[in-house]
Specification:
4 copies of one chain form a homotetramer. Chain A has 208 residues and is an alpha+beta fold. The first copy, chain A, contains 5 helices and 8 strands, in the order αβββαβαββαββα. An 8-stranded mixed β-sheet of chain A has the order 3-2-1-4-8-7-6-5, sandwiched between helices. Chains in contact: A-B, A-D, B-C, C-D.
Chain lengths: 208, 208, 208, 208
């Protein structure tokens, strides 16, 4: 349905979505994904309720900054992700961000659920930290905010907004999973992979 | 062998069977799967004893409500799954159910074996709970009955029937695995994925 | 190189070898596999030292009951598996066995290494036990002998032979892995999958 | 871009890179790989910053012994791996080595991070030890040096050089991962697989 640059973006986004599904990070129709379209005030986003092991080009739709589905995608039965508001809020907060990804791994779920009282998860000293944009060394501390889960997106956003700045690249929703973003799809995918790898290191270190 | 709607159903069922096998949820010819046929009083079900890594269309056969194999599938050497009676019983109990799936994962085996005295496993507060039909929030408790294993299907059914109602979407047989179902193949597959993901969260939380 | 029935056997054996490699059960050129050829006193066996992720038809050779490579396979540089003697001994002990498989998983390695003093590993009450030929119920105890590792095959065979009878379907070599067999390739593959699944259950139960 | 023997080498190297990525040993643009070219004083090495799930032939470039990119690969924006210096140093130390590989697995990261004070990791008694060149038995002890991580390659090399001799086949950088090598790509790949398998055995034994 998309053409030109938007078609290229959807192809790259689909590749990332398939990669995450093979990793087991998008069970049971969970997760959602978006990329800023060629028209910078519109976003290409995943439809609600689709099995990610079968996700394809026709499951991506175009929305505006209010999260409204744009023609020709606004057909009966087509809904944008229930978490569309998180995507539009991230794009609004960070004009340089062009891709927002969300994974729902077992470790992302369990760590955020277990550590929600601590309000953050803290990583230190791993080489993989260089996978986060701007980090030039392993010798630093990186934290990821954790906010309580809610079915009301504005509650999640109210909790997390004050804790994000331009050096932020993601956050965890308790018992729900990871949001991360980047200047392009490759960077956002790298951030997701980095955080998911850090979750595994964190969990293994904790019980070493 | 199937045509029309039944052919489409078998293709979708085969896709789910392959997906589960890649996950490692159907080792050593274990597991069985069915879908209600176009004729609602007949069911398409997996043959007994087939390696699920090689399972194909000719391994699906048609049975009636008594579990008898219907022509042209009633050939010498062709047997329906040993657990056919569980499938027919679920369809009888729940007229709105159109697909019954069974997985045999390591975690489904070990959790049900270890928790059989507690008669159930209990999940609370995870976003993935919304993967179960009817759940609109993570903020609830979901339980899955566990019944002792038996080689006599009527014993399993006698134990589980009184514990299922129309809000039930599955149960565990101790040391054996998960049965789940839904209004269509996609819903039943989503339920299996949701429960298997919850098993992983449960196990990880227990030893956090 | 093989024709007729032997060609069919090699194709089925290759499929099992690829399946095990994807499971991670044949790291670093480890493991070996054989099937009794159409001529029942000859065996088709894997060559020594081949990366199993690249294993193909030309890596299977024909040997006789003494383990000697038969023409046209007896070319310079072609060696039969270092553990050929175990394969020929199993075929000699059990005339009804037509396939011998060996996997080298992390769990097979660690469990056999850790439990070698107990001389066996014991499984009880799991439905998957029905994956072992002859078992009609989950309600039984199955044991698998464990023998110390050695680079001298006759030592391994001397230790294990007295502990195997016609109801035996495999054994473990400490820190080395699993041998299992069956009346055909499908049965031997099912036995390997069953034991490897039991190893996972055993390990998870032990630390539940 | 490569021809003749170099083309064959790049194809084999790409196959190993894809294998490691499927194992999850190269997350988030981490890791680097090289092979000695037909001209023995030049090396084919992976470009910096490429997603290994998409890595292809055009991501391999030619460098000399000083790590300088050679024509026609020396184009704007093309950078050799940040760890090029480790590769060139290994080739200089060991003239018989023709391939150097680096993986970044969760276990390689966590074990090296946790055991850095012990300065090495020690493996004993596993059959898989025969995967290391020159080992004829499982009945031996193999150690792998661990050095602290640094963003200055000369620091890493100063720490590790005195601890390597011609019987060495690899080392760990703390919180960073594994370097290993061999006389050809197959041997270096086998070493990586062997060490990664040993990491899994070590970790499982430690908490058995």
């Amino acid at each position: 349905m998309f053409t030109g640059l938007n078609q290229k973006l959807t192809e790259e986004l689909l590749e990332a979505i398939r990669f995450f599904n093979l990793k087991g990070w998008s069970p049971a129709t969970s997760t959602n994904y978006s990329v800023r379209s060629e028209n910078k005030s519109e976003y290409i986003i995943s439809r609600s309720g689709v099995d990610k092991s079968k996700f394809c080009g026709s499951d991506l739709i175009l929305i505006n900054q209010k999260g409204e589905i744009l023609p020709p995608f606004n057909k009966p039965g087509i809904k944008s992700s229930a978490e569309t508001e998180i995507h539009t809020a991230v794009y609004e907060m960070f004009p340089e961000v062009n891709c927002v990804l969300h994974t729902h791994s077992v470790l992302g779920t369990v760590l955020s659920h277990s550590l929600v009282q601590e309000k953050q998860i803290r990583f230190e000293g791993f080489e993989i930290l260089k996978g986060i944009e701007g980090n030039k060394t392993h010798d630093l501390v990186e934290t990821l905010p954790i906010v309580p889960n809610s079915q009301v997106m504005s509650e999640i956003l109210n909790n997390v907004k004050g804790r994000l700045d331009k050096n932020s690249h993601g956050f965890l929703i308790a018992g729900h999973g990871l949001y991360s973003w980047g200047k392009d799809i490759a960077t956002a995918k790298r951030h997701i992979e980095t955080y998911e790898f850090l979750f595994e290191c964190y969990h293994m270190m904790r019980r070493f």
